[in-house]
Write a structure and sequence with these properties.
Helix content of chain A: 55-70%
Distance between the termini of chain A: 178 Å
CATH class of the largest domain in chain B: Alpha Beta
Structural class of chain B: alpha+beta
Oligomer: heterodimer
CATH topology of the largest domain in chain B: H-NOX domain
Radius of gyration of chain B: 17 Å
Strand content of chain B: 15-25%
CATH architecture of the largest domain in chain B: Alpha-Beta Complex
Shape of chain B: globular
Shape of chain A: elongated
Largest sheet of chain A: 7 strands, mixed
Helix content of chain B: 40-55%
Chain lengths: 708, 179
Amino acid sequence: MSEVDIIKKRLERSIAARKQAESILESKALELYHTNEKLKELNASLEKQVKNRTEALRASKEKYEILVEKASDFIFNIDYNGFFTYVNETGLKTMGFSWEEVVGKPFLLFVEPDHHEQVATHYYKLRESGEAKSYFEFLAMKKNGEKVWIGQNVQSLKGVDGKKYFAAVAREISYQKELQKDLENAKKKAEKAQQAEKSFLANMSHEIRTPLNAIVGMSHLLGDTELNNEQREQLDILLSSANILQSLIADILDISKIDSGKLEVHNREFNIRSLISSLVKTIEVKIDAKPVTIVAEIDKSIKEILVGDELMINQILLNLIGNAEKFTHEGYIYVRLLEQSRTSEKINIYFEIEDTGIGIDQKYQHLIFDQFRQADNKIKETYGGTGLGLSITKKIIDILGGKIQLLSEKGKGSKFFFTLELGLTDKKIEQELVNPIKKSIYRDILQPVLIVEDNLMNLKYIKKLFEKWELKYDVANNGWEAYKKFKANHYSMIFMDLQMPIMDGYEATTYIREYENGASEISIIALTASTLLSKKAEALETGMTDFLAKPFNPNQLSDMIDKYIDRKEIDAESDELGCSVTAEYRYNPKLEVDFLLETYEDDYEYAAEMFDTFLEINFDELDRLRQKYNDKDYSQVKSIAHKIKPTFKMVGLGELSIDLERIEKFASGEELEKLNTSIRQFFSEVDSGMKLVKEELAALNRFIKTKG
Amino acid sequence: MKGIVFTEFFEMVEQEFGYSMVDDMIENTDLDSKGIYTSIGTYEHSEMVDLLGYLHKKSNIPIPDLLNAFGKYLFNTFIKNYPSFFSVVDNSFDFLESIEDHIHVEVRKLYPDAQLPSFETERIDENILKMKYISERSMSDFALGLMQKTIEHYGETIAIERENIDEKGKQVLFTLTKK
């Protein structure tokens, strides 16, 4: 093959290759063209999207700009050196400056010089501490020199450039500041007024009480004189009104004492089981006529003598249980004490008083601990009361470090509960025997006990017991007599009534303690019918050693003697004596046998005497009651009922005593319909009751004779 | 196979043996393309196998040697046409490591239908690089030629050991050791 042929072939191949390349390129060009077209479309759609986005951004920016510019608050930015970088229109307008006068200028330029340091400190802290936000108030200066209060919220933020700056929202608060100042002044004034009111209340209560004691005392004395019927009625009204006034004032005194912080906690050892059982007994007497059962449950683990303010705890529980009794017409009252926790020295006890009474409407529950508040006015009309009880209760619980709480549903009942921390001792509570009857003999006590008591019934009761116990005694009828006798004689201890004419128990105690002048103090036991805390506390403050609440049973009285007179046990003798009394009298079970046994023990002569006195007084009184009721003289009905009510209890006619209590209540409120029913019920039963007593007296006398 | 491989191959053959050898190859092998190649076209790989086989027969040079020489020849074309791939690194190891993840990625952008070998590299230490060649075409000698020229380009002295992982030469492990 020739060289030329090869060249020719090479040329042909080149041409073919070029054509092939051209056609490939052409198809590539076409492909490129289509791709370009597609790209154009894509571009157009992208452009449109960008345009829309830009438009939306612009609108949004405008919206926020308007929002910021026209906001009612000042909005501004400050750089980290304290220079304005932005202020909105509102800020400029209100302060009276132009943009140029503010932006680029230091913030402090517009702050009242006295506030420079404070404002600078706030910014400094925000910048250095890394805290996110801060609010502060300061005086700023407007362009016209006017000073205005500004309150501002400042945040530290990071800009897109990474630089930190402050963003603030502020507003003028001069008006609020003024208002705040006025409010503070008003509050101070109100507090002052309240303080004044409190001390006035406390002082006045004292001032009123002193003459009131005299009124009560003198009324009692007057009652012992010969009076005609009219005078007796008037005296009764006088007495019962004074009594109401007295308890109201005592309540107010309690409240004001608590409020003024004068009520101190006196921690002493006490037996919580006997506290509860005597409370329950007290309430049982009151609920006797109603189908209500009171049940006390005390955690078995609570076995020790505890340390706490027995008076306060007693008052708390008495108020709560008393309330439960008042508002429960049928069902149960539960008193529960549960151990919650204990250490070697302290015990937390959960107290709960639950009843199946009328309950408290949800909407009133937050009010009932307020002073002078009851759930609603109907309660006052139906149940009486001042509305101070729960308030006092709550305050005492507060003082003892607890918190009272309430669960209640209208119509179903109420549950009050709280927890108190009490001290523990290592002394165990001695097992209480059922109806323990102690045979006390005190003939070894050489020096007599002084009884200071103006009430003849009470005096008789105590004297009788002392005689039985062979305890020597002396009697004073009022505080002054007591003081004179104390100076002239030696006594082993004194039982002192609190309310007496001429000189009351408090004053007499003060005199006695002054006379002793710090020398060995004689034990003075206050005898008080009041369950009020202030009276008891006052007795202890005055210098009395202890107190005994009336009515007390012989055991409680002898416990006091055992506690405060040092003497050797004379077990043998007492045993001997215990054995000698074997004969037993059986009371008619229609009477309250338990009560009678507890009150008179085995002293049947004493019981006979009381029964006799009862019959002697009451036939006349019942006639008077009937007469006054027929005359529609309801205040007399009330005072007679009040007067004879306790005597029925003393002879074991508890139910009639309850009837009388209701008569007293309904007569006082002139609720005639209820009064009619109660009176009718009472008189339908009283005759058989009187007959029962008469028969019982005869039986007692027979028994005494045979015993010889 | 991309047309540029054929056109470059013909150029090398022409340079070494004269165009008559090129013509001889075209005339005596049964090619679908009739030996008409353009660098932007794509042709059957089997045509290259046929052409190489014929050249081997005519010249008595073993096929591995032909492939190795072609690799060396093609390196010059690459460095002329795509200098930027070589200038971003300054040594052979870095360059060889960039083939799989960088150069081949760019090649595929330009020729989406290109069928490329793949390389797995492992730097044992600063002086030793292991590079595994994987391709259906068993052209590891061609790759070796490219590697040798690369080392020469960066002015380095590196020994290359090769080890066939399979018999057909579809997977070959090169161990490059710096001196």
